[in-house]
Design a protein that fits this description.
31% of the residues lie in helices and 27% in strands. It is an alpha+beta fold.
Length: 59
């Protein structure tokens, strides 16, 4: 199964509360932190919601 590298590139402080919660749900806490997530519909939906705050790479 494919994997996605998700990197937080912009601070979620000025974002809406649900977007802040989505960033935390992805496991991102600090700027430039990277996590690897499985490529599935649930993760893709979370990434779409905060696409202006993260950078995504397919592995």
């Amino acid at each position: 199964m494919a994997t996605l590298k998700v990197t937080l590139v912009k601070s979620p402080i000025s974002s809406l509360r649900d977007q802040q919660d989505t960033v935390k749900a992805l496991g991102l806490h600090k700027l430039n932190q990277t996590v690897e997530k499985p490529d599935n519909a649930c993760i893709r939906g979370q990434i779409f919601k905060v696409k202006h705050l993260v950078k995504v790479e397919e592995i």
